[in-house]
From TrEMBL:
Record-linked SUPFAM superfamilies: ARM repeat (SSF48371)
Organism for this UniProt entry: Copsychus sechellarum
Name by which UniProt lists this protein: TGRM2 protein
Coiled-coil ranges (or none): none
Record-level GO BP terms: microtubule cytoskeleton organization
Lineage: Eukaryota, Metazoa, Chordata, Craniata, Vertebrata
Cellular component GO terms held in the UniProt record: cilium; cytoplasmic microtubule
InterPro entries for the chain: ARM-like, ARM-type_fold
């Protein structure tokens, strides 16, 4: 136990160290611990990831990218054990989806994909939906795509979560006169979400649309 306490202290010290090399060493150490001492990590998960998540916003780009790369690996290793810190991690990932740095953006997308592959899908949809209105640009499209990916699986478990979390995103996209991203992609992303919802909800989607403004209903009809 003494060794473990020392190891954790070393990890905490490295993750908040002044020098970026030390912080990177801390990130590498955490990955190592997840692989070799997962129980130690999961027992102290809230404190460890409280420090780790700060590095997702690291001012040093190399650290930030490494954190996101490592996070993708950690998600695949720890899976549901990350539930207590999932909100923190998702927030951190989403913040980097608009990064101008291609390496950071790619690492954030990879971490997002691993989240969908390994974390609880219902919780993820709730969190994506919760964060969605704060997003802009490419991040908005990236997350909308992920919500679309989750629709079928989440609907099978909790249809009400789809109605509460995915439908508002659809209405918001249909309502926007000018979308935050100028690109043909927006229409594609919107159409995919609409058809995914139509697939699982059937005629119920049209019924729900009846409470929306007429132009939203028209737009929806033109897409489906």
């Amino acid at each position: 136990a003494g060794d473990e306490t020392e190891m954790l202290q070393k990890l905490y010290n490295l993750l908040v160290a002044k020098g970026f090399e030390a912080r990177m060493e801390g990130v590498a150490l955490l990955l190592d611990l997840c692989k070799n001492s997962p129980k130690l990590v999961t027992t102290n998960i809230v404190q460890i990831f409280g420090d780790f998540v700060l590095r997702i916003s690291d001012t040093y780009k190399k650290v930030k990218q490494m954190v996101l790369d490592v996070l993708a690996e950690i998600i695949a290793i720890l899976e549901d054990a990350l539930n207590p810190v999932m909100v923190l991690l998702v927030e951190g990932i989403l913040k980097n989806l608009n990064s101008k740095d291609p390496g950071v953006h790619a690492a954030a997308v990879k971490a997002l994909e691993e989240s969908i592959a390994h974390l609880d899908k219902v919780s993820l949809m709730k969190e994506f939906s919760h964060q969605w209105s704060q997003l802009s640009g490419q991040a908005l499209l990236d997350v909308t795509e992920r919500i679309t990916e989750l629709v079928e699986g989440v609907h099978a478990r909790s249809p009400e979560v789809v109605q509460r979390c995915a439908l508002p995103v659809l209405w918001a996209l249909l309502e926007k006169k000018a979308l935050p991203v100028r690109s043909a992609n927006v229409r594609t992303v919107l159409a995919r979400l609409a058809s995914a919802l139509c697939e699982v909800m059937g005629t119920q989607l049209k019924k729900c649309a009846a409470s929306q403004p007429p132009y939203v209903q028209q737009k929806l009809s033109s897409i489906l």
